[in-house]
Amino acid sequence: MSENLNEKICIVGAGPSGMSAAWYLQKKGYTDVTVLERLDRVGGKCNTPKFDGKYYEMGAVIGLPTYYKSLALMDEAGIEYYHKEIHGKYSDGSTGKYIEYFTKEEQDQLKLQIAKLQHLIQTKYPDIKKPGHEKVHPDLADTFENFCIKNEIPLVLKLWINPYTGYGYGYFNLVSAAYVLQYLDVPTMMGFINKEFILWKEGTESIWHQLNAKLNKKVRLCTHIEKVVRNDNKVYVYTDFGKEEYDKIIFSSPLQDLKNYVDLAEEEGNLFSKITYMEFYNYACLVENPTHLSTYVPGNMIQSRAGHVVFFYDRTDEGNNVITFDILGNQGEKVTSETCRKYLEEDIELHNMHLKDIVMHKCWRYFPHINTEEMKHGWYDKVEALQGNKNTYYAGEIMSFSDMEECVSYSNYLVERFF
Prior knowledge:
The chain is α+β, with helices and mostly antiparallel strands. The protein has helices at 16-28, 68-77, 104-123, 138-141, 144-150, 154-165, 177-183, 186-193, 205-214, 266-272, 337-350, 372-376, 379-386, 404-418; strands at 8-12, 32-36, 50-51, 54-55, 82-84, 88-91, 98-99, 197-199, 225-231, 234-239, 242-246, 248-251, 276-288, 294-296, 309-314, 322-328, 354-369, 392-394. It is globular and about 65 Å long.
């Protein structure tokens, strides 16, 4: 652990991971922390553009009371948030009709299966909520689908899919249970069930604008990094501003992109080349005849239905008739924007609405992750073993999970371990 609070530290990326790392370093007393961001804003996938006088979430949407580390950071920084119940339903993907998702018998069984999952976590996988995936249990390296089948909790699979695949995090037949349960442990899932949500007046992006205002050294925006060279026990960062010298660097930007500008060692390059991601589309649409209900479409949450709407977030009770729609691609097989647009119009009509206009559109490289085989073969152990080599540290979504709470928690964990 470093004892020199005057060290010059560079953080690449001003999303939740990079911003929170800067905050925690400042809390520890570091006096020279520079955050570099290529975009003209902070927040990363917390993206809340303004349209017609209102803010719309085009990335991250909500928080939950179990976001303990994130909410503690906001309390420390004086960032306000509020609690709200958001009511939603389930609809049939082929007809658009609203459905009762669980039968009465299934509801009774579901309670037992959730209790069984909670017992498993407490007795067999108690470390699931710790930041990162070092020394992951072999059971959790398997797909979440297989995990639920082996443990005879199929209704957990049926319930968990909605705030998981519906929010762009991939398909249960492909993703490791470690990812799913780090994000959606039982208390967090109960927050969804009980509709206990946390929102921000000007959206999730505003969290990071407000945190930036609290930093001693503000984020440098619109900064293109040409190359990073690490030698002589220093880190040299070449940007539009010229050559800059640092003692340490933290990459919270996409690690799979480091090959384009960092002098990676062979092991770093090999490991980061294993990272994959999902294509996740967000459309903010002006519609006629809105449903006034946020809606999961579970029938579309399988690979064969890639390109169809998996979730839509209706806030028309707060003003104009703009609804945001989520569409998930198919890993390894491109779903074009034209296909998504076609399915979007069809799915909106199925729900007895009419598309008047698309007012905003985002396509994200979403949920960076590694496959189950890489997880089983210790990918995270290998990356964690590199922390600190060449005065370099790794944070960001891939190191834990792609929701705000896990990103903030991992940055706190990194700072506490190494700084």
